[in-house]
Design brief:
Blueprint lengths: L5 H10 L19 H9 L6 H5 L5 E4 L14 E15 L4 E9 L2 E8 L13 E10 L6 E12 L9 H14 L3 E4 L10 H13 L11 H6 L5 H9 L7 H5 L4 H27 L9 H10 L6 H15 L5 E6 L5 H14 L3 E6 L2 H15 L6 E4 L5 H13 L4 E5 H5 L3 E2 L2 E6 L7 H10 L10 E2 L23 E6 L5 H7 L4 E5 L10 E6 L3 H13 L3 E5 L8 H18 L5 E4 L5 H13 L4 E4 L12 E6 L7 H8 L10 E6 L5 H12 L3 H17 L19 H15 L8 H19 L6
Helix pairs in contact: 5-7, 7-9, 9-24, 9-25, 10-12, 11-12, 17-24, 22-23
The chain binds adenosine-5'-diphosphate and magnesium ion.
């Protein structure tokens, strides 16, 4: 359509307003002032539709209701000043270039300075109106007030485009009224600063004004009332154009009714999808394991100690899941040392006693080996056949073990994740246990599930249809064609704050081991500067003389980091030759041959080594109760979660344990807080909370955390309570229609959820 042709124009007018109304799903390029080229720029910010644009929220607000007059400013305060640009220029000092701009109100003037800001050179045209927001300070020579590095915005270029016709002028006036005399939203710029906050303000205002009047609320009325949620349209308007009376503090902290409505909505539809997913999984065919007496007997036989109350409770939850005819999808969360392994073995017994095989996957070979040793020690007593299948085995041996698995001779198969990925054929796989799986987010798991049918992020495991000549197992009704999902138990040692677990593992049921086995004495943790290392080594010597063992850990965080590894090896030589010449010192790092690793680990376990110098390979799961000292060198280079995991290697027996955090030189403030937390507490949940706070959710779960959902408006840390509410209400909706929520409303909510999931997470098949 050619808008210049009078005919087309006539038609357009006739079709008004329906044609010009924007739907939330309309592409942003049709929003006035955007077009295809800028739409591309916006796409890089994740803004594709009108809805995306309207959810591009200001990251802060500026109180320009009462801009200040220059003459009343005081040093030390934050202030908004609106003034006219007079002069500006770049000054080179000896240390750095300083950009300086002077703006005035009538006769009074105010200087603003920015360091290293040559890029500002052509920004301020004399005569333009500028809004400045920043800290008022006295300049270094004596008293004149100035703004230091203020935020700024040109709000009225006198000579922006000379050709302004009448309508453009009104628009400019309108724009101007959006800039001052109100609380002004500040958006993050886009397109290398080309799309300014001011541009967003105008565009979003336009989009809001033309938004279709039909904007039905996808959240059922009863929930809206219960939580006093305002309507979506009102929320969008107020979040971009706060009412004059709105609390400025609430705005800045995203706690206005408008923010809450939008945040809740986002979380609600996330939780709705997760909950639905979980129900779907329950609807699949699984194995209803028998829980007869022989299971109880076998479990009793293997237990080397009295289980803690938490272990009992958790086992009950697991057993109850396993007894159900749908596949178990359970997460077992327990801090390091809380005793997850034995619980896993108990679950294995349930499956094995019913004639099924169990796969136990560990993240590292060392850990797989360790599980293998304890499984043999514990489970071979009751007559089960345990095999270890790792990448480093000879090919012949591998083939043999695979045959045992395929024929059903091996009842418990232990390996690394990578290994099980290579399609091992099981005769009759009933349970998959994934240990220390803290790096999978919920979306990642969903994506994996698409590839395999095994669910819960478990790589493909193939099950042959019949038992063949297998000597074990009763024939079952499932031996024919119906695909049967094995049960899955995921174990993690990363204590995840509860609400986050709800989201990250929202598709799993969660059990928590929140009690340590008895007889543990708390670990004493100290910080020591590495200048005092001699004292530390002396202390280690004493502990070893008392019959204990010690770890010395070096920060080789990435095992392929050549220089770090060299440093660790050098220190090993130093320690073994010079510091502890009469003690038995071993070295363990990720690059060692698997056999050698195995040998070193076994020696340490048996007490044939006094000191184990190691990289972070011992971070997960290694269990040597006689080791009571851990010295962590360059502790400042480790993350909090990692320090906690490392420290979890000691304090595993009754003897008092000591963790020494050595630091070299001055450390950053964040690092101070990390080390401080380590000294103060050994409660994994407290540490996790602080870690989360220090790093934010993305980092908290590691950079590989591609499975973290990203949010438009919500923030998992800030909005925990809303997340809880969202989860609760999502469950209420899926409970089905009742006096409060109608079938219609449920359908609408689900429809909305599906579009949203598809758009946001690229997952179509939810629901
Ligand atoms: P994690 O949860 O970190 O995997 P483990 O399963 O390795 O912990 O258990 C840590 C240590 O505690 C092991 O030495 C284990 O034998 C011991 N343990 C586990 N449960 C109990 C219990 N109920 N009583 C005494 N010791 C226990
Ligand atoms: Mg473990």
């Amino acid at each position: 359509m050619n808008p210049k042709s009078p005919d087309a124009k006539g038609h357009l007018l006739l079709l008004l307003p329906s044609l010009l109304m924007l739907e939330p799903s309309t592409s942003v390029q049709y929003v006035k002032g955007i077009g295809p080229r800028l739409a591309e720029v916006l796409a890089t910010k994740g803004i594709h539709t009108v809805d995306d644009l309207l959810h591009y929220l200001p990251f802060r607000y500026e109180d320009r209701v009462n801009p200040r007059s220059i003459s009343e400013l005081r040093a030390g305060e934050m202030a908004t000043v609106i003034a006219e640009v007079r002069t500006s220029g770049l000054f080179r000092t000896r240390r750095m270039p300083i950009f300086q701009m002077t703006a005035g109100q009538g006769r009074t003037r105010l200087k603003s300075i920015w360091f290293n800001a040559a890029y500002l050179r052509d920004k301020f045209k004399p005569g333009a109106m500028v809004a400045l927001y920043g800290k008022v300070e006295q300049d270094q020579y004596g008293g004149e007030l100035q703004l230091v590095q203020p935020q700024f915005e040109i709000i009225g270029d006198a000579d922006e485009d000379g050709s302004a016709d009448a309508s453009e002028k009104t628009e400019q006036k309108l724009a101007a009224s959006l800039e001052v005399g109100r609380i002004v939203p500040i958006y993050e710029s886009a397109g290398q600063g080309h799309l300014t906050p001011r541009w967003f303000r105008r565009i979003i205002r336009g989009a809001l004004d033309n938004l279709t009047p039909e904007l039905p609320d996808p959240i059922p009325a009863a929930i809206r009332q219960r939580l006093s949620l305002i309507s979506p349209r009102e929320a969008l308007r107020k979040v971009h154009w706060p009412d004059p009376g709105e609390s400025f503090a609430d705005l800045q902290s995203s706690r206005t009714p408008a923010h809450i409505r939008l945040i809740f909505e986002e979380l609600f539809f996330l939780e709705l999808g997760l909950e639905l997913k979980r129900r779907e999984q329950k609807a699949q065919t699984g194995i209803a394991f028998g829980l007869g007496n022989q299971v109880r007997e076998a479990i009793k036989k293997i237990l080397p100690f009295h289980p803690t109350a938490a272990q009992k409770r958790v086992l009950k939850e697991i057993a109850s899941d396993m007894g159900q005819p749908f596949p178990m999808r359970r997460l077992l969360q327990g801090d390091v040392g809380s005793g997850k392994t034995i619980v896993a073995f108990e679950a294995a017994i349930i499956a094995i006693e019913d004639g099924y095989q169990v796969a136990l996957m560990a993240p590292t070979e060392i850990l797989a080996q360790q599980h293998y040793f304890s499984a043999r020690r514990i489970l071979e007593d009751v007559g089960y056949r345990v095999v270890l299948l790792t990448g480093s085995l000879e090919d012949d041996r591998k083939r043999e073990i695979r045959r045992h698995i395929t024929q059903g001779n091996a009842q418990l198969v232990i390996g690394t994740h990578a290994l099980i990925e290579q399609k091992v054929e099981f005769a009759k796989l009933g349970l998959v246990i994934v240990d220390e799986q803290h790096r999978f987010g919920v979306l990642q798991r969903f994506k994996l599930m698409k590839k395999s049918d095994t669910g819960a992020g478990v790589p493909p495991v193939q099950t042959t249809k019949h038992l063949g000549t297998a000597p074990l197992g009763r024939p079952t009704e499932q031996s024919s064609a119906t695909p049967v999902e094995p049960d899955v138990l995921v174990m993690t040692a990363t204590p995840i704050p509860r609400t986050l677990a709800l989201t990250l593992y929202g598709d799993l049921d969660v059990s928590v081991l929140d009690e340590m086995p008895p007889g543990r004495t708390p670990i004493v943790t100290r910080r020591v500067s590495d200048e005092r290392s001699a004292e530390v080594w002396e202390f280690v010597r004493k502990q070893i003389a008392a019959g204990h063992q010690a770890y010395v850990v070096y920060p080789v965080i990435e095992e392929n980091e050549e220089s770090e590894l060299k440093a660790a090896i050098r220190m090993y030589k130093e320690l073994s030759k010079r510091v502890f010449p009469s003690l038995r010192v071993g070295l363990l790092h990720g690059r060692l041959d698997a056999d050698l690793k195995d040998q070193v680990m076994r020696m340490f376990q048996k007490g044939e080594l006094d000191i184990l110098v190691s990289t972070t390979v011992i971070e997960v799961g290694v269990d040597v109760a006689n080791a009571t000292v851990m010295v962590i060198e360059h502790a400042e280079r480790f993350g909090l979660a990692q320090l906690h995991q490392l420290r979890g290697r000691i304090g595993r027996g009754a003897a008092k344990s000591f963790c020494v955090l050595m630091t070299g030189g001055k450390v950053s403030e964040d690092c101070e807080r990390r080390l401080d937390a380590m000294v103060r507490t050994s409660d994994g949940f407290q540490i996790a909370e602080l870690d989360l706070e220090l790093r934010g959710p993305g980092e908290f779960f590691g950079t590989r955390q591609a499975g973290m959902p990203s949010f438009q408006v919500a923030n998992l840390i800030r909005d925990r309570q809303l997340l809880e509410a969202a989860k609760r209400e999502a469950a209420a909706v899926l409970a089905g229609p009742n006096a409060e929520i109608s079938q219609e409303e449920i359908k609408r909510a689900l429809r909305h959820m599906r579009t949203r999931w598809q758009r946001t997470y690229g997952l179509v098949e939810v629901g």
